[in-house]
């Protein structure tokens, strides 16, 4: 009898791209039907930037199921904010298959390993873990009760019965696990995840130190001696944990240019550096200037004498803001700021530290998280700490 592989379609796509290298995970992808973990309706962004529900039976969702793309399965935490039923912000999805596999392979799992999954979501990733490691070795935690119950039903229908918990992933159940895998991005790796990783175990998680202005990156940390350390190993465009998402707001909410206490000055730093999308710089800036938000505006159209000039605002949503005026001839650049933090000084310190370290690319960066949750960023080796002092 010819074997039937319900996941053969997506497995074929991933193998053609070279996205699966480990035969054990290839077998898991072949065995798990991805389409069985998609709800009756999914969400697609329209021309206005809002998300509209589409029956999964429609042609586009059916095509997405066989492509290497993520699919939005919930918006606005299950309560679409649009008057017409449309949603504004994705809050749950079935992740891009190649990213799913990259994270699973990064764990370095061996037969019989136990795994703690942070973020059950639709249950597809959980099913892959069960297929590879055995359901008895899988614990998964999901913050949204409705999402958790739907995942439970799908998993049980296919015969997978892992330990499923409804709760905050930052506070997982007690115990040690050989692998800790997060399918939600965090601005800081919780100390509880470090405690949950067995000695020699691994934590694979999307880390978003620059939440709100830069995509998260994937880190692989090895546990031991009360801390976890490892490198940035790739991209990981995941949604932020619900309690860490920045508000959806306008920069004007946090900047008061009429503040009589605002201080004027100047600086040599090019203020446009906050928009520098070098992946290594984005990580350093996000880590060293927590809570940073920014907005930049060109001063004039191309044919205007002021073309090339710009105004750059930075803020932290906690009472500090600053503005700088960029002009093509170069610095010094005029500034104004208010609040307890000197944000331009912090940004300048981060830029100096990054430059003096050789402007390291993202793959040269590493992270150490202590048992108390302290984060230390380093270049090449843990001994080469990156220090940013304004």
Automatic annotation (TrEMBL):
- For this UniProt entry, what is the primary localization, expressed as one broad class? cytoplasm
Q: Which Gene3D superfamilies match?
A: Vaccinia Virus protein VP39
Q: What UniProt keywords apply to this chain's record, in alphabetical order?
A: Cytoplasm, Methyltransferase, S-adenosyl-L-methionine, Transferase
Q: Where in the cell is it found?
A: Cytoplasm
- Looking at the keywords, is Nucleotide-binding present? no
Name one process (GO BP) from the record.
methylation
> What does the entry list under GO cellular component?
cytoplasm
- Please give the CDD domains that the UniProt record associates with this protein: AdoMet_MTases (cd02440)
Write down the species: Streptomonospora mangrovi
An MF annotation (GO) of this entry: protein-L-isoaspartate (D-aspartate) O-methyltransferase activity
| InterPro entries, per database record | PCMT, SAM-dependent_MTases_sf
Q: What protein name applies here?
A: Protein-L-isoaspartate O-methyltransferase
Q: Can the keyword Transferase be found in this entry's annotation?
A: yes
Per the record, the similarity remark reads: Belongs to the methyltransferase superfamily. L-isoaspartyl/D-aspartyl protein methyltransferase family.
Q: Where is the composition biased (Basic and acidic residues)?
A: 76-86
List the residue ranges forming a coiled coil, or say none.
none
Q: Known EC number(s)?
A: 2.1.1.77
Q: Which superkingdom does the taxonomy of this entry point to?
A: Bacteria
| Location of the region described as Disordered in the Swiss-Prot/TrEMBL record | 75-94
């Amino acid at each position: 009898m010819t074997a039937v592989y319900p996941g053969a379609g997506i497995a074929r796509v991933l193998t053609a791209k070279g996205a699966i290298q480990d035969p054990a995970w290839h077998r898991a992808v072949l065995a798990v039907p991805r389409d069985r973990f998609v709800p009756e309706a999914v969400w697609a962004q329209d021309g206005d930037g809002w998300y509209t529900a589409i029956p999964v039976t429609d042609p586009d969702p059916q095509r997405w199921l066989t492509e290497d793309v993520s699919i939005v399965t919930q918006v606005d935490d299950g309560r679409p904010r649009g008057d017409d039923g449309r949603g504004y912000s994705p809050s749950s999805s079935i992740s891009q298959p190649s990213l799913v596999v990259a994270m699973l392979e990064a764990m370095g799992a061996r037969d019989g390993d136990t795994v703690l999954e942070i973020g059950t979501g639709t249950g597809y990733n959980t099913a892959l873990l069960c297929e590879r490691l055995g359901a008895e070795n899988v614990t998964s935690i999901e913050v949204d009760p409705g999402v958790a119950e739907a995942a439970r039903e799908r998993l049980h229908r296919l015969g997978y019965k892992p330990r499923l918990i409804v709760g905050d992933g930052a506070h997982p159940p007690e115990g040690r696990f050989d692998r800790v895998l997060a399918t939600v991005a965090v601005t800081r790796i919780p100390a509880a995840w470090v405690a949950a990783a067995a000695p020699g175990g691994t934590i694979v998680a999307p880390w978003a130190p620059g939440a709100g202005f830069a995509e998260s990156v994937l880190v692989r940390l090895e546990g031991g001696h009360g801390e976890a350390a490892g490198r940035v190993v790739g991209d990981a465009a995941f949604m932020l944990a619900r309690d860490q998402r920045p508000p959806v707001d306008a920069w004007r909410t946090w900047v008061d240019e009429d503040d009589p206490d605002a201080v004027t000055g100047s600086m040599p730093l090019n203020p446009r550096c906050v928009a520098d999308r070098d992946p290594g710089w984005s990580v350093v800036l996000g880590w060293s200037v927590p809570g940073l938000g920014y907005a930049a505006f060109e001063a004039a159209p191309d044919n205007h004498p002021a073309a090339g000039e710009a105004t750059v605002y930075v803020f932290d949503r906690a009472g500090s803001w600053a503005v700088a005026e960029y002009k093509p001839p170069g610095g010094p650049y005029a500034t104004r700021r208010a609040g307890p933090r000197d944000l331009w000084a912090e940004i300048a310190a981060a830029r100096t530290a990054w430059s003096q370290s050789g402007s390291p690319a993202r793959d040269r960066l590493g992270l150490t998280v202590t048992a108390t949750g302290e984060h230390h960023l380093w270049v090449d080796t843990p001994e080469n700490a990156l220090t940013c002092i304004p």
